[in-house]
Automatic annotation (TrEMBL):
Residues 60-316 form the G-protein coupled receptors family 1 profile domain. PANTHER family: ADRENERGIC RECEPTOR-RELATED G-PROTEIN COUPLED RECEPTOR, DOPAMINE D2-LIKE RECEPTOR. One of its GO terms (molecular function) is G protein-coupled receptor activity. Keywords: Cell membrane, Disulfide bond, G-protein coupled receptor, Membrane, Receptor, Transducer, Transmembrane, Transmembrane helix. It is a multi-pass membrane protein. It comes from Strongylocentrotus purpuratus. One of its GO terms (cellular component) is synapse. It is found in: Cell membrane. Belongs to the G-protein coupled receptor 1 family. The lineage of its organism: Eukaryota, Metazoa, Echinodermata, Eleutherozoa, Echinozoa. This is G-protein coupled receptors family 1 profile domain-containing protein. It comes from the Eukaryota. Pfam families: 7tm_1. The chain crosses the membrane at residues 47-70, 77-98, 118-138, 159-180, 210-228. InterPro entries: GPCR_Rhodpsn, GPCR_Rhodpsn_7TM.
Amino acid sequence: MADISNSTQTYSTDMFWTDIQNASEYMNVTANSLDPFGTTQLNLRSLIFLAVFFALIIIANIISLGAFLVEKRLCTYNNYFIINLTILDLLVGIGLVIDVKQWYIDRYPFSQNACKVLTGIFSGIVNASNINVVVICADRHQAVYDPINHYISRSKRKAIIISSLSWVIGLSFWIGYVTVWEFVVDHDNGLHCSQRFRLSPLTNMIQNNAMFYLPLAIIAVLYVRIFIKIRKTVGRRNNKKSTGLMDLNLSTAKDNEMTSVSVSSTSHTGSFSDILETGSRDDTMISSSSSRNETKIGNIGQGISYGNSLLNPISYAMSQPLFRATIIKMFSCKRPSQAN
């Protein structure tokens, strides 16, 4: 009987300490976890930061569109390209809401079919934003090297048609490259909405070139040529002023175009950084993390890479006094002046 009692007591003691350890671990998990999906306080703070950050992107671009709508004098040829870029940035901010939800629950919130369709559309919008910067650079390049014809031919209708090209090219390529392809091969996107083209180095290289390297190369070449041309023109003017020779036959249209190019190049510097950030954004999506914390850190970096969508409307307000004054009047409940 004594042996049985000692054995029972030992067994009960082991069970007791095991229960204490399990309870301690449970309390630690419960203290750090705020939801059934395992989101810790640190991760939750990061998600709140990203949610606020993406909300600012949406609000800033809505304010920008509102300024263009209430002040007709802002609807100029050059600003039509900015309006198009603002719409694209607004859609990017709205699309990022899905990413916040995905990072919070650690899985894609919709079905795989929705993943295929929405990923194709969102990638097309992001690429259209980059292509729109290429379109702006090409228009500024023509204004520098062929100012007379550019001044004569420019119109709001032309700006709208040219701006629509970025939508057509971006959406047609990415819907075909992502959505159509994945439906044809019946790709399994899994819980995290992984894309088919990321499984092959060749197809992944194609998307990197289409999204990042090709637009970057075109923009770099065009801006270098614009910079060289403006520098030569300014140098010739300085030489003529120093020798007392004034070029009275200089075209007024060319002067206006050169000034417009300088202002436009400054206001679109932020858009150039958007393409740089797109590459790091794709690299972040490709890399797989070994732990949940590493995944959250990568998601934070990926989210911050969209910061140019917030910087664009801020740069518009800084570079255009009328745009800035219109926003101030909107918040002060003053009626903006109408064009004659």
